[in-house]
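Incident log, support desk, overnight shift.

02:14 A customer reports that sequence design results differ from what the structure should imply. Their input is reproduced verbatim below. On-call engineer (initials T.W.) acknowledged and began investigating.
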């Protein structure tokens, strides 16, 4: 449909203002309709390429006539809002995700890391379960006194949607459990649609002349998120139980993963018949290959095999990283690939000035999804050189405009260009010349030298800093983005508009300007925002309200919004939790400026923060321009103190502990993870701020220092008694 339009439509440059306005209105409606189909109904009507074509046309018209940008412009909206009608449920235990393994070596690393963490040699004594990774939707189903009381989707892992009525229509899921089960039972698993049921449903749709569904997973998701549970009931959804959340009386339950799942079977849940309990790496990988061979015959989609440590006491000792358990991993099946051509190579300039080349591809379907772009990462990647200088393509193939390439898509990751089909390279194809200047601001673009290794960094960066429009606007866009300040009505398009504004009463160049906009508007004799096309009185009031609402913000969001290099959401959370308040964080970063001393050691000791990240944070706080922006920002907004770690009834919560000497009761990693799990901070060096030093045999200078400073010293056994065994 959209493809036809592109052939008959008027060139953007030839559109009159009126025709442009009409078309923008039509595109807003049409794109909103497709967003709704895609996000809320899981039933797209057009291909991704056609959707992109519509969006591109919309953007081109907006660029030609910026005064016509609509408040509901599709370039501003991010997908469709979630259905407002399902209530939220907070999971009693978070629903985590799994780390991925792709190659056999990754699985070996996983197995070895389990042994290492537990302080054992990899002697095959630890059993693992291996079972298919079902490509459906994960679900947590709660029973109280044997009765199904609620069911929730995974959502963001902390809260999900209450889909109890819909889940009750799934015949395979018992509404009642047998007598004698614990009073609280939360069974977790995957809701999916069988391949044969999916095909039958599509045959029915075709017979009725209706739009076909894309794949079983989307259809299952769509079938479940129906306000009318009768629709769900008609869809033949199925379920496999493989995990659990809260369980009362856990001591009466089995002590292994394998037996727990068998117990679920006894309680009436479907469990996957291909689960096996295995010890050696060879057996585990053998089972992976067997499942891979059976994959086409199975009546449900799977995308890998999940391995879990079998013994639950070992699972408990291994514990969790921020988002995934240490005791499990998902071994994915190889990604899907296809051939297409590189039509062009564009350069995008990011928030940190990185110049990222992007291949514009002739649209192609890879594993059921239309791919039009692929990242080319950096200059070296185009030349066929990897991050450590290694050759990444056969015979040193580089990538050129006009080349036929193999594109790979794996899961949700950005598509990659794997290789070039040299036989099809056009005779006149020239090697791509990476720009020496920033395509946006014209500043020099350079590859920095890594101080440690002396090697050239793979990333080319624009040296324009705050002068570069792309960097400055990308910074602002990051600042207002969904997981940062999330200001409604202030999206990418508006950021561009306010950034470009000439009038000082309208201009937003740095984050604090967002919060002074209202005041500047109120006192301005000049242009009023509400008189500008695309704003209007109501939307201006809403925008100011949305801005005011964010004057108080969670510390982790505040830190994330600062846009410090390498500091994503997870790191921001770690920092917020560790330092508690912005003042404590900023003071510590100031103390760490010399990249030495206690504050520096303390930062590096936070589990999940490595040296590169630590350096980037400290460097951020050394740049006067950053400090100026933050200082101005803090006169407008107040970051809220972060909640201290939950297990605060432990005597070690909030205390700083140093482990030294050789530990005999647990490995250092395990000691650290357990202490942190109880809310303690684990540091690498002893200082005035240290509360306890746990010293094993052979402890030396740290023990001396502790004695000198009068810090309490314990043996490993004393520590164990202190933390409760
Ligand atoms: S175990 C704490 N087992 O994969 C770990 N997950 O990438 C709990 N999934 O959100 C998950 N099949 O939706 C587990 N046999 C299986 C699975 C499985 C599919 C999904 C699940 C999870 C996602 C993680």
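02:41 Re-run completed on a clean worker. Output:
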């Amino acid at each position: 449909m959209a493809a036809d339009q592109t052939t008959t439509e008027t060139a953007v440059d030839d559109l009159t203002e009126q025709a442009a306005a009409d078309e923008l209105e039509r595109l807003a409606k049409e794109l909103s309709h497709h967003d709704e189909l895609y996000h809320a109904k899981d039933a797209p009507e057009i291909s991704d390429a056609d959707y992109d074509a519509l969006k591109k046309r919309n953007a081109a018209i907006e660029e030609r006539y910026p005064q016509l940008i609509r408040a509901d412009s599709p370039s501003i909206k991010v997908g469709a809002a979630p259905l407002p009608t399902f209530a939220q449920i907070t999971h009693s235990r978070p629903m985590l995700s799994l780390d991925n393994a792709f190659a056999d070596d990754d699985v070996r690393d996983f197995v070895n890391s389990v042994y290492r963490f537990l302080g054992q040699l990899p002697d095959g004594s630890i059993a693992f379960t291996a079972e298919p990774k079902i490509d459906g939707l994960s679900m947590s189903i709660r029973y109280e006194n044997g009765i199904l009381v609620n069911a929730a989707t995974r959502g963001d892992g902390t809260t999900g949607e209450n889909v109890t009525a819909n889940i009750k229509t799934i015949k395979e899921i018992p509404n009642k459990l047998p007598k004698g089960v614990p009073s609280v039972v939360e069974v977790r698993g995957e809701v999916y649609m069988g391949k044969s049921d999916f095909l039958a449903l599509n045959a029915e749709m075709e017979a009725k002349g209706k739009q076909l569904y894309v794949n079983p997973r989307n259809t299952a998701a769509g079938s479940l998120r129906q306000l009318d549970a009768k629709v769900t009931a008609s869809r033949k959804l199925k379920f496999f139980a493989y995990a659990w959340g809260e369980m009362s009386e856990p001591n009466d339950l089995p002590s292994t993963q394998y037996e727990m799942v068998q117990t679920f079977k006894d309680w009436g849940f479907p469990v996957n018949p291909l689960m096996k309990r295995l010890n050696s790496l060879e057996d585990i990988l053998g089972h992976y290959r067997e499942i891979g061979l059976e994959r086409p015959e199975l009546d449900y989609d799977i995308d890998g095999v999940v391995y879990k440590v079998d013994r639950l006491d070992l699972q408990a000792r291994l514990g969790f990283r921020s988002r995934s358990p240490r005791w499990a991993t998902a071994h994915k099946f190889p990604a899907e690939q296809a051939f297409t051509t590189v039509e062009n190579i564009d350069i995008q300039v990011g928030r940190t000035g990185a110049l990222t080349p992007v291949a514009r591809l002739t649209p192609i379907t890879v594993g059921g999804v239309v791919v039009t772009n692929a990242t080319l990462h950096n200059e070296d990647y185009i030349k066929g050189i990897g991050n450590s200088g290694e050759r990444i393509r056969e015979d040193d193939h580089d990538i050129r405009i006009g080349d036929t390439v193999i594109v790979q898509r794996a899961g949700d990751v950005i598509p990659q260009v794997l290789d070039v089909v040299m036989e099809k390279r056009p005779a006149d194809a020239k090697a791509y010349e990476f720009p020496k200047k920033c395509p946006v601001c014209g500043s020099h673009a350079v590859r920095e030298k890594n101080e440690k290794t002396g090697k050239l960094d793979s990333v080319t960066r624009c040296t324009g800093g705050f002068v570069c429009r792309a960097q400055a606007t990308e910074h602002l866009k990051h600042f207002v983005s969904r997981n940062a300040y999330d200001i409604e009505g202030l999206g990418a398009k508006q950021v561009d508009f306010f950034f470009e504004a000439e009038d000082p009463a309208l201009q937003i160049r740095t984050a604090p300007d967002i919060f002074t906009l209202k005041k500047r508007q109120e006192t301005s004799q000049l242009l009023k925002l509400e008189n500008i096309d695309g704003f209007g009185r109501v939307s201006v009031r809403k925008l100011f309200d949305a801005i005011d609402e964010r004057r108080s913000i969670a510390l982790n969001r505040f830190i994330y919004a600062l846009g410090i290099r390498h500091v994503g959401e997870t790191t921001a959370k770690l920092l917020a939790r560790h330092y508690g308040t912005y003042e404590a964080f900023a003071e510590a970063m100031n103390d760490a400026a010399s990249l030495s001393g206690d504050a520096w050691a303390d930062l590096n000791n936070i589990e999940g923060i490595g040296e590169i990240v630590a350096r980037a944070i400290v460097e951020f706080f050394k740049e006067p321009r950053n400090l100026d922006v933050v200082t101005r920002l803090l006169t407008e907004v107040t970051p809220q103190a972060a909640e201290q770690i939950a297990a605060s009834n432990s005597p070690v919560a909030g205390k700083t502990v140093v482990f030294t000497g050789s530990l005999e009761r647990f490995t250092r990693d395990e000691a650290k993870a357990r202490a942190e799990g109880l809310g303690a901070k684990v540091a690498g060096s002893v200082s005035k701020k240290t509360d306890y030093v746990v010293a094993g045999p052979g402890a030396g200078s740290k023990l001396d220092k502790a004695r000198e400073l009068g810090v309490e010293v314990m043996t490993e056994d004393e520590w164990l008694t202190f933390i409760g065994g």
